[in-house]
Amino acid sequence: MTIIPRESHTISRKDISENALKVLYRLNKAGYEAYLVGGGVRDLLLGQKPKDFDVTTNATPEQMRKLFRNCRLVGRRFRLAHVMFGPEVIEVATFRGHHQAEEPEEDRNSSQRAQSGMLLRDNIFGSIEDDAQRRDLTINSLYYSVADFSVRDYVGGISDLEQGIIRLIGDPETRYREDPVRMLRVARFAAKLNMSIAPETAEPIPRLASLLRDIPPARLFEESLKMLQAGYGYSTYLKLCEYQLFQPLFPTLARNFTENSDSHMERMLAQVLKNTDNRIHNDMRVNPAFLFAAMFWYPQLETAERIAQESGLTYFEAFAMAMNDTLDEACRALAIPKRITSLIRDIWLLQLRMSRRHGKRAWKLMEHPKFRAAYDLLALRAEVENNPELLRLSQWWG
Protein backbone atom coordinates (compact mmCIF):
# COMPACT_ATOMS: atom_id res chain seq x y z
CA MET A 1 0.00 0.00 0.00
CA THR A 2 1.14 3.56 -0.78
CA ILE A 3 -0.03 6.54 1.28
CA ILE A 4 0.21 9.86 -0.58
CA PRO A 5 0.33 12.60 2.08
CA ARG A 6 -1.60 15.86 1.82
CA GLU A 7 1.38 17.86 0.47
CA SER A 8 2.03 15.36 -2.36
CA HIS A 9 -1.36 15.41 -4.13
CA THR A 10 -3.68 18.07 -5.55
CA ILE A 11 -7.00 17.22 -3.84
CA SER A 12 -8.48 20.08 -1.84
CA ARG A 13 -11.61 19.97 0.34
CA LYS A 14 -12.94 23.08 -1.39
CA ASP A 15 -13.44 20.96 -4.55
CA ILE A 16 -15.44 18.30 -2.68
CA SER A 17 -19.21 18.45 -2.16
CA GLU A 18 -20.09 19.82 1.29
CA ASN A 19 -22.59 17.00 1.72
CA ALA A 20 -19.98 14.33 0.98
CA LEU A 21 -17.72 15.96 3.59
CA LYS A 22 -20.60 15.94 6.12
CA VAL A 23 -21.06 12.18 5.59
CA LEU A 24 -17.31 11.51 5.94
CA TYR A 25 -16.99 13.60 9.12
CA ARG A 26 -20.05 12.07 10.76
CA LEU A 27 -18.87 8.51 10.05
CA ASN A 28 -15.38 9.32 11.42
CA LYS A 29 -16.89 10.97 14.51
CA ALA A 30 -19.00 7.85 15.18
CA GLY A 31 -15.80 5.77 15.18
CA TYR A 32 -16.01 4.33 11.64
CA GLU A 33 -13.43 4.43 8.86
CA ALA A 34 -14.71 6.43 5.87
CA TYR A 35 -13.15 7.48 2.57
CA LEU A 36 -14.06 9.26 -0.62
CA VAL A 37 -13.50 6.67 -3.35
CA GLY A 38 -13.82 5.92 -7.06
CA GLY A 39 -14.37 8.31 -9.95
CA GLY A 40 -14.59 11.37 -7.67
CA VAL A 41 -11.03 10.85 -6.37
CA ARG A 42 -9.77 10.00 -9.89
CA ASP A 43 -11.31 13.17 -11.38
CA LEU A 44 -9.98 15.40 -8.57
CA LEU A 45 -6.46 14.03 -9.13
CA LEU A 46 -6.85 14.70 -12.88
CA GLY A 47 -7.93 18.29 -12.11
CA GLN A 48 -11.48 17.66 -13.36
CA LYS A 49 -14.80 18.42 -11.67
CA PRO A 50 -16.39 15.17 -10.41
CA LYS A 51 -19.98 14.43 -11.42
CA ASP A 52 -20.71 12.77 -8.09
CA PHE A 53 -19.01 11.74 -4.86
CA ASP A 54 -19.07 8.19 -3.50
CA VAL A 55 -18.11 7.19 0.02
CA THR A 56 -16.98 3.82 1.36
CA THR A 57 -16.86 2.79 5.02
CA ASN A 58 -16.64 -0.14 7.43
CA ALA A 59 -20.13 0.78 8.76
CA THR A 60 -22.77 -1.70 7.57
CA PRO A 61 -25.90 -0.46 5.75
CA GLU A 62 -27.92 -1.00 8.96
CA GLN A 63 -25.43 1.04 11.02
CA MET A 64 -25.59 3.76 8.35
CA ARG A 65 -29.37 3.89 8.64
CA LYS A 66 -29.09 4.47 12.42
CA LEU A 67 -26.53 7.24 11.91
CA PHE A 68 -28.34 9.22 9.18
CA ARG A 69 -32.03 10.07 9.35
CA ASN A 70 -31.96 11.07 5.66
CA CYS A 71 -30.74 7.63 4.55
CA ARG A 72 -32.38 4.85 2.56
CA LEU A 73 -31.00 1.47 1.62
CA VAL A 74 -31.10 0.43 -2.04
CA GLY A 75 -29.95 -2.41 -4.27
CA ARG A 76 -30.18 -6.18 -4.06
CA ARG A 77 -27.08 -7.18 -5.96
CA PHE A 78 -25.07 -5.04 -3.55
CA ARG A 79 -26.71 -3.17 -0.65
CA LEU A 80 -25.93 0.57 -0.67
CA ALA A 81 -26.96 3.48 1.53
CA HIS A 82 -28.18 6.64 -0.20
CA VAL A 83 -27.85 9.69 2.06
CA MET A 84 -30.23 12.33 0.69
CA PHE A 85 -29.48 16.06 0.77
CA GLY A 86 -32.29 17.58 -1.30
CA PRO A 87 -31.44 16.85 -4.95
CA GLU A 88 -27.93 15.58 -4.10
CA VAL A 89 -27.50 11.92 -3.16
CA ILE A 90 -24.28 10.70 -1.55
CA GLU A 91 -23.88 6.97 -2.19
CA VAL A 92 -22.23 5.07 0.67
CA ALA A 93 -21.05 1.46 0.29
CA THR A 94 -19.68 -0.85 2.96
CA PHE A 95 -16.19 -2.26 2.26
CA ARG A 96 -16.63 -5.39 0.16
CA GLY A 97 -14.96 -8.69 1.04
CA HIS A 98 -13.59 -11.55 -1.05
CA HIS A 99 -15.58 -14.55 -2.30
CA GLN A 100 -14.31 -17.91 -1.15
CA ALA A 101 -14.53 -20.71 -3.74
CA GLU A 102 -16.54 -22.78 -1.26
CA GLU A 103 -18.55 -20.38 0.85
CA PRO A 104 -19.83 -21.35 4.30
CA GLU A 105 -23.58 -21.95 4.41
CA GLU A 106 -24.38 -18.62 6.12
CA ASP A 107 -22.58 -16.65 3.34
CA ARG A 108 -24.56 -18.25 0.52
CA ASN A 109 -27.43 -15.85 1.15
CA SER A 110 -25.01 -12.93 0.86
CA SER A 111 -23.38 -14.01 -2.40
CA GLN A 112 -24.59 -15.93 -5.42
CA ARG A 113 -22.82 -16.85 -8.67
CA ALA A 114 -24.22 -18.10 -11.99
CA GLN A 115 -22.62 -20.99 -13.92
CA SER A 116 -20.96 -18.54 -16.33
CA GLY A 117 -19.09 -17.06 -13.34
CA MET A 118 -21.37 -14.01 -13.15
CA LEU A 119 -22.08 -12.64 -9.68
CA LEU A 120 -25.81 -12.40 -9.05
CA ARG A 121 -25.62 -11.14 -5.48
CA ASP A 122 -22.65 -9.66 -3.67
CA ASN A 123 -23.15 -8.65 -0.01
CA ILE A 124 -19.97 -9.96 1.62
CA PHE A 125 -18.34 -7.24 3.72
CA GLY A 126 -14.59 -6.94 4.34
CA SER A 127 -11.68 -4.59 5.07
CA ILE A 128 -10.47 -1.60 3.04
CA GLU A 129 -7.69 -3.84 1.60
CA ASP A 130 -10.32 -6.37 0.43
CA ASP A 131 -12.45 -3.53 -0.93
CA ALA A 132 -9.56 -2.15 -3.02
CA GLN A 133 -9.04 -5.58 -4.62
CA ARG A 134 -12.77 -5.96 -5.36
CA ARG A 135 -13.03 -2.71 -7.37
CA ASP A 136 -12.79 -2.93 -11.14
CA LEU A 137 -10.07 -0.52 -12.33
CA THR A 138 -6.86 0.54 -10.57
CA ILE A 139 -7.56 4.24 -11.31
CA ASN A 140 -10.98 3.93 -9.62
CA SER A 141 -9.53 2.27 -6.50
CA LEU A 142 -8.04 5.32 -4.75
CA TYR A 143 -9.23 6.37 -1.28
CA TYR A 144 -9.17 9.94 0.10
CA SER A 145 -9.36 10.37 3.88
CA VAL A 146 -10.60 13.51 5.68
CA ALA A 147 -8.96 12.22 8.88
CA ASP A 148 -5.45 13.02 7.60
CA PHE A 149 -6.16 14.30 4.02
CA SER A 150 -4.06 11.50 2.49
CA VAL A 151 -4.79 9.34 -0.57
CA ARG A 152 -4.41 5.57 -0.11
CA ASP A 153 -3.44 3.42 -3.09
CA TYR A 154 -3.51 -0.38 -2.68
CA VAL A 155 -3.32 -1.41 -6.36
CA GLY A 156 -0.95 0.95 -8.22
CA GLY A 157 -3.74 3.29 -9.35
CA ILE A 158 -1.66 6.48 -9.01
CA SER A 159 1.04 5.13 -11.33
CA ASP A 160 -1.58 4.02 -13.91
CA LEU A 161 -3.28 7.43 -13.68
CA GLU A 162 0.04 9.20 -14.35
CA GLN A 163 0.83 6.89 -17.29
CA GLY A 164 -2.70 6.97 -18.74
CA ILE A 165 -3.38 3.22 -18.44
CA ILE A 166 -6.75 1.50 -17.94
CA ARG A 167 -5.99 -1.67 -15.98
CA LEU A 168 -8.38 -4.17 -14.43
CA ILE A 169 -7.62 -5.36 -10.88
CA GLY A 170 -7.18 -9.13 -10.52
CA ASP A 171 -7.43 -11.78 -13.23
CA PRO A 172 -9.20 -10.09 -16.19
CA GLU A 173 -11.08 -13.16 -17.45
CA THR A 174 -12.44 -13.98 -13.95
CA ARG A 175 -13.48 -10.36 -13.40
CA TYR A 176 -15.23 -10.14 -16.79
CA ARG A 177 -17.08 -13.38 -16.11
CA GLU A 178 -18.21 -12.06 -12.69
CA ASP A 179 -19.70 -9.00 -14.40
CA PRO A 180 -19.46 -8.77 -18.22
CA VAL A 181 -20.43 -5.05 -18.07
CA ARG A 182 -16.84 -4.47 -16.88
CA MET A 183 -15.79 -4.90 -20.54
CA LEU A 184 -18.00 -1.93 -21.45
CA ARG A 185 -16.58 0.10 -18.55
CA VAL A 186 -13.02 -0.57 -19.72
CA ALA A 187 -13.89 0.66 -23.25
CA ARG A 188 -15.85 3.64 -21.88
CA PHE A 189 -13.09 4.87 -19.56
CA ALA A 190 -10.41 4.40 -22.23
CA ALA A 191 -12.48 6.65 -24.53
CA LYS A 192 -13.55 9.13 -21.84
CA LEU A 193 -10.07 9.68 -20.36
CA ASN A 194 -8.20 9.15 -23.66
CA MET A 195 -6.10 6.41 -22.06
CA SER A 196 -4.71 3.14 -23.38
CA ILE A 197 -5.92 -0.28 -22.20
CA ALA A 198 -3.28 -2.52 -20.57
CA PRO A 199 -2.62 -5.52 -22.90
CA GLU A 200 -3.67 -8.15 -20.33
CA THR A 201 -6.88 -6.18 -19.66
CA ALA A 202 -7.67 -5.90 -23.40
CA GLU A 203 -6.78 -9.44 -24.54
CA PRO A 204 -9.83 -11.43 -23.29
CA ILE A 205 -12.47 -8.86 -24.35
CA PRO A 206 -13.18 -9.98 -27.96
CA ARG A 207 -13.33 -13.63 -26.76
CA LEU A 208 -15.79 -12.85 -23.96
CA ALA A 209 -17.89 -10.13 -25.64
CA SER A 210 -20.78 -12.57 -26.17
CA LEU A 211 -21.22 -12.81 -22.35
CA LEU A 212 -23.01 -9.46 -22.60
CA ARG A 213 -26.02 -11.40 -23.89
CA ASP A 214 -26.46 -12.73 -20.31
CA ILE A 215 -26.93 -9.20 -18.94
CA PRO A 216 -30.51 -7.92 -18.49
CA PRO A 217 -31.35 -5.72 -21.53
CA ALA A 218 -32.55 -2.89 -19.23
CA ARG A 219 -29.07 -2.66 -17.69
CA LEU A 220 -27.47 -2.65 -21.15
CA PHE A 221 -29.77 0.21 -22.20
CA GLU A 222 -28.55 2.29 -19.22
CA GLU A 223 -24.94 1.42 -20.05
CA SER A 224 -25.45 2.40 -23.71
CA LEU A 225 -26.59 5.90 -22.64
CA LYS A 226 -23.55 6.27 -20.35
CA MET A 227 -21.34 5.39 -23.30
CA LEU A 228 -23.01 7.30 -26.13
CA GLN A 229 -24.54 10.33 -24.40
CA ALA A 230 -21.76 11.55 -22.14
CA GLY A 231 -19.69 13.68 -24.52
CA TYR A 232 -17.30 11.03 -25.87
CA GLY A 233 -19.75 8.83 -27.76
CA TYR A 234 -17.86 8.73 -31.06
CA SER A 235 -14.55 7.61 -29.53
CA THR A 236 -16.44 5.05 -27.38
CA TYR A 237 -18.16 3.71 -30.52
CA LEU A 238 -14.74 3.18 -32.16
CA LYS A 239 -13.49 1.35 -29.04
CA LEU A 240 -16.64 -0.84 -28.92
CA CYS A 241 -16.11 -1.82 -32.56
CA GLU A 242 -12.38 -2.46 -32.01
CA TYR A 243 -13.09 -4.92 -29.18
CA GLN A 244 -16.19 -6.55 -30.79
CA LEU A 245 -18.47 -5.14 -28.07
CA PHE A 246 -20.76 -3.23 -30.44
CA GLN A 247 -22.39 -6.34 -31.93
CA PRO A 248 -24.01 -7.72 -28.72
CA LEU A 249 -25.50 -4.26 -28.00
CA PHE A 250 -26.60 -3.32 -31.52
CA PRO A 251 -26.90 -6.53 -33.59
CA THR A 252 -29.12 -4.84 -36.22
CA LEU A 253 -26.48 -2.20 -36.90
CA ALA A 254 -23.44 -4.51 -36.71
CA ARG A 255 -25.06 -6.78 -39.33
CA ASN A 256 -25.05 -3.85 -41.79
CA PHE A 257 -21.38 -2.88 -41.35
CA THR A 258 -19.34 -2.74 -44.58
CA GLU A 259 -15.64 -3.35 -45.21
CA ASN A 260 -14.87 0.32 -45.85
CA SER A 261 -17.24 1.65 -43.14
CA ASP A 262 -18.73 4.06 -45.69
CA SER A 263 -22.35 2.95 -46.01
CA HIS A 264 -25.04 5.58 -45.33
CA MET A 265 -25.75 3.87 -42.00
CA GLU A 266 -22.10 3.96 -40.87
CA ARG A 267 -21.70 7.57 -41.97
CA MET A 268 -24.90 8.40 -40.06
CA LEU A 269 -23.60 6.64 -36.92
CA ALA A 270 -20.34 8.60 -37.00
CA GLN A 271 -22.06 11.93 -37.69
CA VAL A 272 -24.86 11.65 -35.11
CA LEU A 273 -22.38 10.61 -32.40
CA LYS A 274 -20.03 13.51 -33.24
CA ASN A 275 -22.99 15.94 -33.23
CA THR A 276 -24.17 14.54 -29.87
CA ASP A 277 -20.67 14.99 -28.39
CA ASN A 278 -20.60 18.61 -29.64
CA ARG A 279 -24.01 19.36 -28.13
CA ILE A 280 -22.92 17.99 -24.74
CA HIS A 281 -19.69 20.01 -24.79
CA ASN A 282 -21.79 23.12 -25.54
CA ASP A 283 -24.15 22.36 -22.60
CA MET A 284 -27.06 21.66 -24.96
CA ARG A 285 -29.70 19.03 -24.28
CA VAL A 286 -29.53 15.63 -25.94
CA ASN A 287 -32.35 13.18 -26.45
CA PRO A 288 -31.85 9.39 -26.62
CA ALA A 289 -34.93 9.11 -28.89
CA PHE A 290 -33.24 11.29 -31.52
CA LEU A 291 -29.93 9.43 -31.19
CA PHE A 292 -31.57 6.00 -31.66
CA ALA A 293 -33.88 7.28 -34.43
CA ALA A 294 -30.78 8.37 -36.38
CA MET A 295 -28.76 5.24 -35.61
CA PHE A 296 -31.51 2.82 -36.71
CA TRP A 297 -32.92 4.92 -39.59
CA TYR A 298 -31.18 3.16 -42.49
CA PRO A 299 -31.79 -0.46 -41.33
CA GLN A 300 -35.44 0.51 -40.79
CA LEU A 301 -35.63 2.10 -44.26
CA GLU A 302 -34.10 -0.96 -45.96
CA THR A 303 -36.54 -3.25 -44.13
CA ALA A 304 -39.47 -1.06 -45.26
CA GLU A 305 -38.32 -1.19 -48.89
CA ARG A 306 -37.86 -4.98 -48.75
CA ILE A 307 -41.32 -5.53 -47.20
CA ALA A 308 -42.94 -3.22 -49.78
CA GLN A 309 -41.33 -5.15 -52.66
CA GLU A 310 -42.09 -8.62 -51.29
CA SER A 311 -45.57 -8.18 -49.83
CA GLY A 312 -47.52 -5.94 -52.15
CA LEU A 313 -48.47 -3.73 -49.15
CA THR A 314 -48.60 0.04 -49.57
CA TYR A 315 -45.33 1.79 -48.74
CA PHE A 316 -46.87 3.35 -45.62
CA GLU A 317 -47.99 -0.09 -44.34
CA ALA A 318 -44.57 -1.57 -45.12
CA PHE A 319 -42.92 1.36 -43.32
CA ALA A 320 -45.08 0.76 -40.22
CA MET A 321 -44.19 -2.96 -40.22
CA ALA A 322 -40.50 -2.15 -40.62
CA MET A 323 -40.64 0.21 -37.63
CA ASN A 324 -42.05 -2.63 -35.51
CA ASP A 325 -39.48 -5.18 -36.74
CA THR A 326 -36.51 -2.85 -36.26
CA LEU A 327 -37.52 -1.67 -32.79
CA ASP A 328 -38.44 -5.20 -31.67
CA GLU A 329 -34.95 -6.44 -32.52
CA ALA A 330 -33.30 -3.38 -30.94
CA CYS A 331 -35.31 -3.89 -27.73
CA ARG A 332 -34.32 -7.54 -27.44
CA ALA A 333 -30.69 -6.44 -26.97
CA LEU A 334 -31.34 -3.13 -25.18
CA ALA A 335 -34.67 -2.72 -23.40
CA ILE A 336 -35.36 0.73 -24.88
CA PRO A 337 -38.28 2.07 -22.80
CA LYS A 338 -41.65 2.54 -24.50
CA ARG A 339 -41.64 6.31 -23.92
CA ILE A 340 -38.50 6.45 -26.10
CA THR A 341 -39.60 4.00 -28.81
CA SER A 342 -42.85 5.96 -29.28
CA LEU A 343 -40.81 9.15 -29.88
CA ILE A 344 -38.56 7.27 -32.33
CA ARG A 345 -41.69 6.25 -34.28
CA ASP A 346 -42.87 9.89 -34.35
CA ILE A 347 -39.50 11.07 -35.70
CA TRP A 348 -39.49 8.34 -38.38
CA LEU A 349 -43.10 8.91 -39.49
CA LEU A 350 -42.42 12.63 -39.81
CA GLN A 351 -39.68 11.80 -42.37
CA LEU A 352 -42.47 10.50 -44.65
CA ARG A 353 -44.75 13.44 -43.96
CA MET A 354 -41.98 16.01 -44.50
CA SER A 355 -41.45 14.77 -48.05
CA ARG A 356 -44.80 16.45 -48.90
CA ARG A 357 -44.57 20.23 -48.88
CA HIS A 358 -47.98 21.32 -50.13
CA GLY A 359 -51.13 22.64 -48.54
CA LYS A 360 -52.15 23.43 -44.99
CA ARG A 361 -50.97 20.06 -43.68
CA ALA A 362 -47.35 21.04 -44.32
CA TRP A 363 -47.65 24.06 -42.00
CA LYS A 364 -49.44 21.92 -39.43
CA LEU A 365 -46.42 19.63 -39.27
CA MET A 366 -44.34 22.44 -37.83
CA GLU A 367 -46.56 22.40 -34.74
CA HIS A 368 -45.77 18.71 -34.06
CA PRO A 369 -43.84 18.37 -30.75
CA LYS A 370 -41.19 16.25 -32.49
CA PHE A 371 -40.89 18.48 -35.58
CA ARG A 372 -37.51 19.90 -34.54
CA ALA A 373 -36.00 16.43 -33.95
CA ALA A 374 -37.48 15.17 -37.24
CA TYR A 375 -36.07 18.19 -39.09
CA ASP A 376 -32.62 17.54 -37.58
CA LEU A 377 -32.77 13.93 -38.81
CA LEU A 378 -33.82 15.10 -42.30
CA ALA A 379 -30.86 17.52 -42.38
CA LEU A 380 -28.50 14.74 -41.21
CA ARG A 381 -29.78 12.39 -43.92
CA ALA A 382 -29.18 15.09 -46.55
CA GLU A 383 -25.62 15.61 -45.27
CA VAL A 384 -24.81 11.89 -45.00
CA GLU A 385 -26.18 11.01 -48.46
CA ASN A 386 -25.10 14.28 -50.10
CA ASN A 387 -28.50 14.02 -51.78
CA PRO A 388 -29.56 17.20 -53.69
CA GLU A 389 -33.28 16.44 -53.30
CA LEU A 390 -32.99 15.96 -49.52
CA LEU A 391 -30.79 19.07 -49.28
CA ARG A 392 -33.51 21.12 -51.04
CA LEU A 393 -36.15 19.58 -48.77
CA SER A 394 -34.23 20.38 -45.58
CA GLN A 395 -33.61 23.96 -46.80
CA TRP A 396 -37.34 24.35 -47.52
CA TRP A 397 -38.34 23.17 -44.03
CA GLY A 398 -35.50 25.11 -42.41
Automatic annotation (TrEMBL):
List its EC numbers: 2.7.7.19
Q: Which domain of life is it from?
A: Bacteria
Q: Domain (Polymerase A arginine-rich C-terminal): give its ranges.
A: 312-397
**Which InterPro entries does this entry report, sorted A to Z?**
NT_sf (IPR043519), PolA_pol_head_dom (IPR002646), PolA_pol_I (IPR010206), PolyA_pol_arg_C_dom (IPR025866), PolyA_RNA-bd (IPR032828), tRNA_ntf/polyA_polymerase_I (IPR052191)
Identify the residues that the record assigns to the tRNA nucleotidyltransferase/poly(A) polymerase RNA and SrmB- binding domain, covering every copy: 194-254
Which Gene Ontology terms describe the biological processes this protein takes part in?
A: mRNA processing; polyadenylation-dependent RNA catabolic process
Q: Which UniProt keywords apply?
A: ATP-binding, mRNA processing, Nucleotide-binding, Nucleotidyltransferase, RNA-binding, Transcription, Transferase
Task: Give the positions the UniProt entry annotates as the active site.
Answer: D52, D54, D136
* Reactions listed under catalytic activity: RNA(n) + ATP = RNA(n)-3'-adenine ribonucleotide + diphosphate
A molecular function GO annotation = poly(A) RNA polymerase activity
Give the family, as the similarity comment puts it.
Answer: Belongs to the tRNA nucleotidyltransferase/poly(A) polymerase family.
User: What does the record give as the function of this protein?
Assistant: Adds poly(A) tail to the 3' end of many RNAs, which usually targets these RNAs for decay. Plays a significant role in the global control of gene expression, through influencing the rate of transcript degradation, and in the general RNA quality control.
PANTHER family xref list: POLYNUCLEOTIDE ADENYLYLTRANSFERASE FAMILY PROTEIN
Name-wise, this protein is Poly(A) polymerase I
Provenance organism: Enterobacter agglomerans
> Lineage of the source organism?
Bacteria, Pseudomonadati, Pseudomonadota, Gammaproteobacteria, Enterobacterales
Which gene produces this protein? pcnB
